[in-house]
Amino acid sequence: MSVNKGQNARALVEPLALDSRTLGDGDLSALALSHNNEQYSSNDFEAFANIQAELECMNAEEVMTTDEEHIIIGRNIETETIVPDVEMTEVSEQAQEEHIIYTTANQNNQNIVFQTKPTLQRLPASTVQVKSNVGQVTQSQSIMIVSPAGGQGTSQILKISHPSTASAGQLQSLAQTLITAKSADNIVQLRSAQPNKPVMATSHSGNITLGSVQNAKTVQSAIKRTAQSTSQNRNVYTKMILAGNQTPSGQVLITSSQNENQQTQAIKFLNNSTSSQDVTSPAKTITLAQAQQMGLLSTNKVQHILPSSPQKQGIIVNKLVQSSSSQTSKMTLVPSNTIKSPTKILPAPTMNTQVKTSTISNQQSTFSSSNKSTVQQSPQKVIIRQSSLKPGTVLGSGQVIRIPANQNIVTGSNQVHQIQMPSRQVQYVRLVSTPSSGTTNVVTVGKTKSQTTLQTVGVGQKLGGQQQIVKVVPLNTNNQSLRTVAPKATLTGSGQRLLIPATATVSNQSKNAVAIPASALSQLASGQAVLSTNSNVGNIVVLPAQYIQQQSADDAKLKSQQATPGLLSNSQNLQSSTGTISVGSVLENKTSQRSYTSVEPNGIRPRKPCNCTKSQCLKLYCDCFANGEFCHMCNCNNCSNNLGNEEERQRAIKSCLERNPNAFRPKIGKGRETGDDIRRHNKGCNCKRSGCLKNYCECYEAKIPCSANCKCIGCRNVEEPNLEKKSLKDLAEAAEVRTAQLTLNKTKLQLSEMAFRPPATSNTGARQPFNFLTDKVVQITCECLMAQADEAERNMFDDETSQRLIIEEFGRCLKEIIESAHKAEAT
DNA sequence: GAGTTTGAAACT
DNA sequence: CAGTTTCAAACTC
């Protein structure tokens, strides 16, 4: 492990080395946005976004290379100890230091402040701020690098000023140099993108040094992290806050569109006036992938994210759209770092190929911070990243939940997972991912031969060609009833289920962001809850983009691993561990929902919502509860099967287990017979009237024939009359015939025995023949007649023949009765 | 959509 | 363990 740490330390600084090896100033210049206007436009901020993204990538120990217009980002294989810290975006009042105010247009002066926030005690994240004073008629443009020294709150400012004559492009180029800035452990490295003036600024331990290098390629940072073992010192998170101060509430829109041919991506920042009354400065986070799916990605900017290591990793780019009076918007770019579960960079949907202009003024953000509280418009983001840090570490302004990489929260069930974290509030994360047997994560977004391959921002893993998406949405733990936000219409078609706080609109959920290591996410089983210790952290629920495919084709196998609801089972393997993880917005969800059908690709249908009214969804009557799932988007009343009633829920679970230890085990399993792949109902049904041919019958509902376990009456749920199996059916029918015949014979025998039984006597002691017609005798006689009728029916006799046989049988019965009477009288 | 039927689960 | 009741889904109209 110590060796790994050393490697990690190396890996931490390696990106720069690689960067210098692969990047040239010209390349960096290429990153600059091409615009003739000296005034910053949305393109400029797109460039900033690119910078941010790149910086994130750097923080994520990625290797970035540029190839002309393309930024190729590759990740170094990373050991666990070097995993970036989980990032948590924070908004609201604390944003005064972190918000980037930029002018949207029409300014001749541009002040850009890049602030690095080295390793604060609680927020080991580097913050990059791009600040642009609006309305000030300054003739200078500057880039400031603000680096708090040693996390003590004292900022040191490195201001790189340049003449007012500097064009926006130049400034932009200079800004581009910051892409290599790395604030991990108080290390900031800057390099100028300008070919003739490469500049490197290094901040170490709070000290910032500025130097020039003639060749950017020589920029190699041998600086090693001095506090490798201290997770607090890891600055792996870079946050870029962009705020348009010309509008009451700045809006940041990251737009990108993917053209299958061009495969380009752009980030756009949009200002959009909103009437949001939010005071809490809610932040909205979206991924670029989401933006892509929203069709917001433009093609004028190309960003390539190319995995350069065998372990491909994706990048999560989250954007926080903040619609509040704080006039700030926050964009969070979070590198995703997965070790064993490389994330996949999701390609933008083809539907989003339209090119959007980057005009700020007229851009209308789909993510507008309007008062609309729909999830689609105000998606909450949860950042899931891999982290090797010790469990329970809270990162970032109390809004980061780190799921320790070593914390095994893998289960095979679709349950809310609880992650114990040393502190106050409990975080639940419900991870619903698609199980997959695949073990290889392929990043579909890669540099293609033409190098025009796109990149996507977002975290995704692709398995077996099947896209798997894990969605994370905030969950309200306080509520008693989770509010269903998704349109009901989509319910049946998708299975997509979202939990959002019932007490607040999405737009106010700025603090409900949780960063989870991608690796941890990949290990999380669906529906698991993550316990967080941070009181500030909102409640997060991670939900499946595809409604849980926890039931794989190997249903029995999977279900055998199903955990008791709310209970963790570390021993269980998560089949989705290698599944694609994508942090998407609801918008993305919405898009995904379209593709969803009532039946999952694996043939598993999404669970239907329950309609419980009296059971509080805490009894096995409730399918949700019985399946160990939280009610979500159900129609139940007074539901307690949610996070807000976890205690009660646990009690109910316990009660059920007391009654039946196997209560939460799958009812459908495989037959014990060797090689018998026939699914069986473990308990069997008890149908009496349905003939096991209606969905009342659990066997029939599961589309499995009744078995010996069943106690059903009149079962007709037998094997399909396949040619091969017909013999079995014939045997069954023959057996039934034999059984009926035996029943008839038995009845006759009983009648005979009754007949020979000592007759009833009168009060006088005289035996009376009518006394033989006891109720028992009558009953048996009727049974004989019925048995005869059944036999006639079975033999397909016509009515006349059947009636004749029945009458004959009745005659026979009477004969026996009479004979019995005679015998009794004789004796 | 309301009412009925059904069978599993819960209860006694 | 059996009988009864409760419950929610399935079904019917």
UniProtKB/TrEMBL annotation:
Keyword Nucleus on entry: yes
Primary location class: nucleus
Signal peptide: none
A single BP term in Gene Ontology: regulation of DNA-templated transcription
A single cellular component GO annotation: nucleus
Record keywords, A-Z: Nucleus
All copies of domain CRC, residue ranges: 606-720
InterPro entries: CRC, Lin-54_fam, Tesmin/TSO1-like_CXC
Xref: SMART domains: CXC
Pfam families assigned: TCR (PF03638)
Subcellular location: Nucleus
PANTHER family according to UniProt: PROTEIN LIN-54 HOMOLOG (PTHR12446:SF34), TESMIN/TSO1-RELATED (PTHR12446)
Protein family according to the UniProt entry: Belongs to the lin-54 family.
Name of the protein: CRC domain-containing protein
Species per Swiss-Prot/TrEMBL record: Melipona bicolor
